[in-house]
Input
Amino acid sequence: MGGVHIIPIYGVRGYEDRYIKYLSPQWMQMLDFTVQEARKLGLDVDMTLGTGWCFGGPRVTDEEANALLVVWSNSVSPNVGVVHIPATNKPLAVVAVSKSGEVVDVRDKVDETGLLSWKPHQGEWTIYVLFTRPSGQKVKRAAPGGEGHMLNLLYRPAIENFLKWFDEAFAGYAGAKPRAVYHDSYEYKSDWSPDLLTQFASRYGYRLEMELPYFLSDVDLDRVRRIKCDYREFVSDMIYSNLVVWVRWAHSNGFITRNEAHGSPGNILDFYAAADVPETEFFRSDRDIMVAKLASSAAHILGRPFTSSESGTWITEHFHETLDALKHLMDDFFLAGVNHVFYHGTCYSPLDAPWPGWLFYASTQMNPQNPIWFHVRVLNDYIARCQAILQAGQPDNDILLYWPIYDLWSFPTGRLQHLTIHAAESWIVPTPCGYLARALWRNGYSFDYISDRLLAEIQVGTLPGSVRTPSGIEYRAVIVPKTTYMPLGTLEKLLSLARGGAWVVFQDRLPADVPGWWNLNQRQVIFRGITNSLRFAVQNNFPGLVARVGRGSLIVGDPLAVLEALGVRQERMVPNLGLEFIRRRVNDAGVYFIVNRTAQDIDGWVPITAKGKTAIVMDPMTGSIGIGATRCGFNEELEVYLQIASGGSLVVSVTELEPKDLPRWKYYRLIGDPVPITGEWRIEFLRGGPTLPSAVTTNQLVSWTELPDPEAHRFAGAAKYTLSFSVNPATNSLWVLDLGKVCHSASVWLNGIPVGTLIAVPFKTYPLPLGMSTNTLEVEVVNLAANRIRDLDQRGVQWKIFRDINFVNINYRPFDASDWQLVESGLLGPVTLWPVEEFWPK
Output
């Protein structure tokens, strides 16, 4: 582990005497102590800027609180010329709208008492009054001293005054400072700010309140789409600018920043890019690598070394999380470009707190109270090895995929669109960009997303057709998915890149129009002038229409066919074998993290596009490393012989030079039928609770929950299985031990020698030599905490003692494990030996 993260949350009943008020002198002393002790241990410390989430607290006033627009309306006619406006607060705008859509500003007709004195000449009109009000949303799961409104991130004074709270707290602070400050996922409910109308008019040149009939409408009209697009763009830019205020404040105070942008109603690609460390998350079943890549794309384009992740939140029901499931979760993150994971929501729990200790309701309990902790070192070592690889060098993706946010912003319905992890199918998955991203991924093309703002920083690269990011990373092509609306500046930028020699590919067609309502006619004239001036034609057998511009080309066609024709790298291991990968460039080596998500083991030659003669293979689960077998394959492409079990992963580094100090990678093949291991097993319960069950001897491997001792039914912890067996030595000298079904992790010793700890399917060891006579097998199996927590709830033990949301299940209903079925525990087998021999692929 590399560090800890401080997120103060609600208190625990019965421990009120230990509460420390947030940012009090005692709290600051504890912060200093924590950071200093962590660094003595080689760790670092991050902290949320606030308590719970999101930003907010006792210093946030009603005016600075996250705010909602309130629209009040009433009818008025020539016979009714007086309207009493509700005296909730000062109206932001008062307009009269006729049935034909005429709009009149009548705010100056409202007196100090809220009486509107105005009547139309003819017909019935509707008076609209715009107010804001605090949404009522308070800081979620706040700690003592941190309670209060969430702030309004659309409103500059709100963030500036919020930061003054911390200026005061740190003004006299001479202690050690954390590494980073952190902003959790965007869960504010703001859609307005006190100065929105003024700021909007200043930027766009028209008054939003005078477009109220269109702004409030959900009818699919061009003007409705455009007005709402301007509003959504404006809100996005306000949030972005305020995030920049926070980042600059952090830098001036010696912190870096981590930001979760998902959930916001703006361009989350830009919001990720605003921070030093973009952070994504997977939540419950909402695990989409294509969505998580938005965070890593921002880091890659700007040369940020880290992309972090909120990890382990609601991956399954409490106390059912396995190390196997966590390993596969981490693989998803790594494939998405994450290289800096956090076990989010793991609570500090004092030693005197009865089991299960102090808990957070949404996280995997990654702490010593959870029995999976006994074998967690193996998972942590796996993560550490993977991150060491994925933090080294530079990302090595070939394509910049434009994200057409203005198409999303031009939807006619609703007001703001919150881009949450939970509802990605509503904003990216079923869109042309989402479909194209998945098609590129499934066909072995590596890419990063790019926004309009980030695209403005891109320059022509040095390689044929390439572009270069501000951090110096080159991509081979820019692809624009089918897009309806594109800002004029973006189209001009793409044209400029093409003129400089870059490959710019439009999927099937050019964008149709500019977005938004402001200065529309002038922008449309320029936009259409550009698109109409382009002369596309078929060239030779090229799979697309090509328009020559300057030293380069604009291309319209099927991106997959165009990429193949342009010779952009395609990792054929993906479409041919079903493997998934992420690739980096470390000095002169091409480094791959490869995962086998298919149902079949991979055992054969795997094509790789990296240039080199030597392939160094590493197993990040064990740390084993060696020089792999290679050959020249199709079209002189390097092929590496790999053996990857279903669910497994390997790292492959391709270099020109062959290290002198590395052995050859070991390959094994089956040479006979499996041999079952049977006999009398002795099962001894070693550690855990609530009580150690009695030892038992059995010839049949069954779950602890089927043993006669009732203590085994509620036990959570570790038990050791011991068996003596013999194998005919003439058969073979090397054997793979297959434990079969394990619930849920196992450490193995053979003849007193540790073989390893297995945390994921398949529960198989590396090939082992066996003695000529009797061998002794010992297997320490660790189960889950589920049966023990079930027992507590069945006996009515009051362990749920938390001050807030005291305690919920995965469906956010009151937690009750008393009706759970017993969860299988222990070594279930069958345990077998597979005879193998070492070989070298030819």
In short: The mean pLDDT is 95.
